[in-house]
Amino acid sequence: MSPWKNIRADFPILHQQVHGKPLIYLDNAATAQKPRAVIDALVHFYERDNSNVHRGLHALSMRSTDAYETARARLARFINAAATEIIFTRGTTEGINLLAHSLGAKLRPGDVILTTEMEHHSNLVPWQQVARATGATIRYLPVVGADAEGGLDLTQLDQLLTPAVKIFTCTHISNTLGVINPVEELCRRARAVGAISVIDAAQSIGHGPLDVQAIGADFVVFSGHKMCGPTGIGVLYGRREQLESLDPDETGGGMVANVTYESARWKPAPERFEAGTPNIAGAIALGRACDYLDALDRAEIAKHDQSLTGFAYDQLAKIPGIRLLGPTGARSGMVSFAFSDVHAHDIVTFADEDGLALRGGHHCNQPLMRKLGLTGTTRASFYIYNTEAEIEVLVTSLRRILAFFGAG
Ligand SMILES: Cc1ncc(COP(=O)(O)O)c(C=O)c1O
């Protein structure tokens, strides 16, 4: 039987009305909903096992430590890494900041950070701060096409990816355009000039198989909440050799092997990067999210996303005056669009009356919006529980809104 048929029953939040209409949640690129199994894992931990990790010798502490480390091993399996290469963070933003501070400390004037024009502010501003502090410069791999259909302009790589580049970072999937970047090739090219590669997998982690060995990145970061896990938990994967030479960003309890009044010695990775009490329940529930997504088969999730997105593009393209952004080829599970006469915030506010949860604005991509000549877009982003019928409601709602504004 198709795994998609009964999937909505797993998500309690979907069974509600908004303004008297059934909720249609199309804001999955911002955060995904949580299946009952993940919610239960959180409740189970706090009801039965809650205790701090790595510190106690009593039964509850051993149980919670065991569950926390089992979750680490589960996340490692999820992305084909070793458990010692998994650092639990609060999410993508924290992972990138950790890297920007720790890798950035080694940069010198004249060094270059190469990134792209389509990065989320989380993978842009921390590097800008580091460049400012160290005298390094930032180069941008451009996006091509007025509507960015072409994704990154790889013809510029030879010119931009020189030996001066010490860090290369890019998003796996653009959170505004839905472009899927060729990260394997980009990491291979970065390695060839001796640059360290950092991949932002925030938008890809929940939407298909992800193998860090195949990608060949030195570091990969992602957030649990975009892959059916809780908020406040994420992962920084680092290749073992890289982690061994990396200094911690935060210091304190839990990450030290020995402390005197004068100095401290760090534990090895991953503990070295997890100062203080971690989000234990979040990590355990994120492990449960891995089980949930693997049971659905992540290759099938990718196909489901692509089929819904293809359907959405076809239906939306029939609306007069719509500007559809993003690729015409391989697409992830989202579609971004704009109308010249109606602001994205108006679209989202009016669509809410029809029970639709959309996102409107710059999507933390202000420089890209400026380049595309837009103040913002409306974004509909899909996940495992969305249906073609919901996309039809979206299209009907958009037509109603355009008629109201006398547009389209
Ligand atoms: C591509 C990308 N990078 C980074 C982030 C930041 O993720 P978080 O807010 O979970 O740290 C997001 C969130 O939308 C994103 O889409």
- Tell me which oligomeric state these chains represent: single chain
Low-confidence stretches: none
Give the name of the CATH architecture of the largest domain: 3-Layer(aba) Sandwich
Class computed from helices, strands and strand pairing = alpha/beta
Largest beta sheet, briefly? 7 strands, mixed
Instruction: Name the helicity range.
Output: 25-40%
Q: CATH-wise, what's the superfamily of the largest domain?
A: Type I PLP-dependent aspartate aminotransferase-like (Major domain)
Shape estimate:
globular
Strand content: 15-25%
Structural account:
- The chain is built from 13 helices and 17 strands.
- The protein is α/β, with parallel strands linked by helices.
- It folds into two domains: 7-26 and 298-404, Alpha-Beta Complex (Aspartate Aminotransferase, domain 1); 40-294, 3-Layer(aba) Sandwich (Aspartate Aminotransferase, domain 2).
- The strands form five sheets. A seven-stranded mixed sheet has the order 4-10-9-8-7-5-6, sandwiched between helices.
- The chain is globular.
- The chain starts with 16 loop residues before the first strand and ends with a helix.
- Pyridoxal-5'-phosphate binds at residues 91-93, 120, 122-123, 171, 175, 200, 202-203, 223.
- Residues 91-93, 120, 122-123, 171, 175, 200, 202-203, 223 line the site of pyridoxal-5'-phosphate.
How do you describe this structure in short?
The protein is α/β, with parallel strands linked by helices.
